[in-house]
Amino acid sequence: MKSLHTDSDWTKSSGTVFWAEIAPYEHVVQIYDHDDTFLNTLFAFVTDGIRSDDCVIVIATKPHLESLHERLYESGFSLEDLAAKNLYMPLDAEVALSKFMVNDWPDATLFLDLVSGLISKAKKDNRRVRAFGEMVAILWAREQVGATVRLEQLWNSFCESQAFCLFCAYPQSGFTQDAVDSVMHICSAHSKMIRTGNDKGLNDIYYKSMGIA
């Protein structure tokens, strides 16, 4: 994982080539304005991974999983075939949280047990892995800021020892008070940020170690 710093410059990339260029160890965040915006990005992340023969792990809320599965089905993908080929591993984010949250705080050992098991299964047949996680967004929505930041830190520590790309997303509606400081807290834990327009699910991507342009 590249080290975090406060360089003020961003490098911009077209969204149409972003997922093709993405590398292991990257921790990507999207702060989105509408569900459709986020789902378009997630769909691109998942389908590009499948077509690249990666194993894609998706830890999302039940409504988002249902919407994603509907889009995959409409695009001709079979969830059964993807699972059989070890190309797609969905998991309910609330269920995942219940496996390692203790007294409203992420337990590091239990977290490691969960994610190491998932990654080990995903890397079967020497596949590359990419993962999406929405657990942090759930904690953030509950105003559990400390637990959110801690979970991001646990993900970063795990990514340092395992070669895979991690993508997470937060609804913009969650940043209502002290927005600048709140966004900085989130962006400081990531190596890339997806900035989206109101009319597209995937617009421009900005590469930076920390901060907001």
From TrEMBL:
Q: At the top level of its lineage, which domain of life is listed?
A: Bacteria
List residues of the MEDS domain.
27-184
Pfam families the record matches:
MEDS
What's the protein name? MEDS: MEthanogen/methylotroph, DcmR Sensory domain
Organism, per UniProt? Chryseolinea serpens
